Amino acid sequence: MRYAIRGDGADTPHADNIPPGCGYPRNSDRDHAVALLTARADRYDKIADGAGDKPYPTELSCRLSDDALRAAAHVNGKTARALAQRVAAHPPYPYATVSTFGYGFAAQGKSPLVSFRPSDACPSLASDEMAVFDVNFVRAARAAEAYKAGVGAVVTVSGGAIHSRLVEAFLLDYLLTCRFGVPADAILLDPCADHTHTNMRNTGSLVIAIGGRTAYIVTDDWLQSRYLEEYTTFDFLFGSIDQRALRDFGYLLGSYRRASMGDAAPNGTGGGSGMKAGFWYTPYRFWAEPADGLGGFTCIP
């Protein structure tokens, strides 16, 4: 923002042009989104058929087994094509996704879902087999609720086979489709993420792929929610999301902030209604005052 002098001598604010490479893409409209989605669907279909050229898209670039990657590509291709058809028939373009991340630990390696692939028939699981899913159940339920409320055009799920043989994204797909009634062609899969900052990077790749602007990330009320808040503790002990992104990728992931805080109880002791575990995230670059003071703007890479 800068000030310009009007003919009568009064100062009026005047917005500078967006610096090159910053801000939302200018061509986020229905036709652009349909073209992006169709091209992405074609790319996914080739991977699913075993004919895709490498490197694969970010969300499929990992050492997961070939059958797992092809299964994810098959689902993503169907979802991208179905979304292209919905957008063409009922604009506007897909502004947002609903997104959630998996939570894994070693005990999940004994789950019957280890061999499950998205688009498989829904297996019947006993209560003790469901219990091992832990907070994934909460995250998937909240994602389903947000999707059905119209928050986003699709649900993206992210998480690899990091802590056990169970692919966390496939677990979330099972919960969304088999337990919470989200249509199978409304889910995009990232089975390659290995940590929260990788979840966000790959989710950002999916947001860009559909021509969207933002993701509404839902999680549980525990550790990941606190991590996304950037508490100082994480800066010192484990590394914040920004610190890890700069270390591992060489760039920041975009911007994110808590979407809501919920309502506190009248006596201030907690227990009010509302969810504290929703965050808006955009992978696009924005501009900010440079570190050396006021006077100009620079892109945050």
- Across the major sheet, the strand order is 5-4-3-6-8-7
Radius of gyration: 21 Å
The CATH superfamily label of the domain at 94-262 and 272-299 reads HUPs
Mean pLDDT: 85
Return the CATH architecture of the domain at 94-262 and 272-299: 3-Layer(aba) Sandwich
Largest β sheet strand count, sense and barrel closure: 6 strands, mixed
Number of strands: 10
Quick one: CATH class of the domain at 94-262 and 272-299? Alpha Beta
Share of residues in strands: 5-15%
Enumerate the spans where pLDDT stays under 50 for 5 or more consecutive residues: 1-6, 264-273
General form: globular
Tally of separate helices: 9
Output the helix-strand order: EEHHEHHEHEHEHHHEEEE
- From the N-terminal CA to the C-terminal CA, the straight-line distance is 20 Å
Helical residue percent band: 25-40%
Q: Which class do the helix and strand fractions yield?
A: alpha/beta
Provide the CATH topology of the domain at 94-262 and 272-299: Rossmann fold
